[in-house]
């Protein structure tokens, strides 16, 4: 299974309205997987384990199809601009933000639901 390794997050220009965000990682895959397409989903999360025990998903930074084109080890660098308020997960003090990288095969098993059946089911009385 293809895996992201060495995920790094950089946030720059913290004193401006828009922040420059960079997420870098290495996609490691087997030789057989290196020609497949994957869905790359990168989310930015606020670390709140000390406050309420649950982290907060702040935004989806990237959601795209990628193809390693035969490379078993592929360095990725995704950059973008984010409005500062979107990463303000702690209303006071410093914000603790991390990047979560998810990689899924594009052509994975699919599911399909049936049509909705409307039926009145009564208890035996």
Explain the overall architecture:
There is one protein chain. The mean pLDDT is 82. Strands 1-2-5 form a three-stranded antiparallel sheet, with no helix packed on it. With 125 residues, the chain is mainly β. The protein has strands at 3-12, 18-28, 38-46, 56-66, 73-83, 97-105.
Q: Which tags fit this structure?
A:
mainly beta, Immunoglobulin-like, three-stranded antiparallel sheet, 6 strands, elongated
CATH topology: Immunoglobulin-like
Q: Topology as H/E string?
A: EEEEEE
How is the largest sheet built, in terms of strand order?
1-2-5
Query: Whole-number average pLDDT?
Result: 82
**Main sheet, how many strands, which sense, barrel?**
3 strands, antiparallel
Radius of gyration: 20 Å
Helix content: under 10%
> Gap between N and C termini, in Å?
54 Å
| Uncertain spans | none
What is the CATH class name?
A: Mainly Beta
Find the count of extended strands (DSSP E, 2+ residues): 6
How much strand? Answer: over 45%
Count structural domains: 1
Give the second-level CATH assignment, the architecture. Sandwich
Count of individual helical segments:
0
């Amino acid at each position: 299974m293809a895996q992201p390794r060495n995920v790094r997050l950089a946030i720059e220009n913290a004193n401006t309205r828009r922040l420059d965000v960079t997420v870098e990682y290495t996609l490691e895959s087997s030789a057989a997987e290196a020609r497949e397409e994957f869905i790359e989903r990168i989310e930015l999360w606020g670390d709140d384990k000390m406050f309420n025990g649950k982290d907060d998903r702040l935004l989806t930074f990237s959601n795209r199809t990628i193809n390693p084109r035969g490379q078993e080890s592929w360095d990725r660098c995704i950059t973008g601009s984010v409005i500062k308020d979107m990463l303000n997960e702690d209303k006071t003090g410093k914000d603790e933000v991390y990047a979560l990288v998810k990689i899924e095969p594009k052509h994975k098993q699919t599911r399909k639901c049936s049509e909705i059946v409307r039926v009145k089911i009564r208890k035996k009385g």
